[in-house]
Design goal:
The chain starts with 7 loop residues before the first helix and ends with a helix. It is mainly α. It contains five helices and no strands. It is elongated, with a radius of gyration of 17 Å.
Length: about 80
């Protein structure tokens, strides 16, 4: 298993793999690619950095207001907060 930061080439291999095979079957990524990363690393890299629907950037003022409102009520329970409107 490789440790350390991902390279652009590794990112591209993972993106190509997901385009061809879809998301979800992370158990066979290593068998079907030259990636030396474990399946958990591949899944986390996809979900947290490479997924095309991933939103990066600032919150809108309205979203920030909602987050602060819920945080003042329930604290750092982020998963629970996502179910609130």
């Amino acid at each position: 298993m490789k440790k350390g930061p991902w390279t652009a080439a590794e990112d591209n291999m993972l993106i190509d793999y997901v385009k061809m095979n879809g998301e979800g079957n992370w158990n066979v990524v290593q068998k079907n690619t030259d990636l030396a990363q474990c399946r958990k690393s591949c899944r986390l890299r996809w979900v947290n950095h490479l997924h095309p629907n991933l939103k990066k950037g600032s919150f809108t003022p309205e979203k920030e207001r909602i987050i602060l409102k819920h945080h003042s009520k329930i604290g750092n329970k982020w998963a629970r907060m996502t179910t609130k409107s």
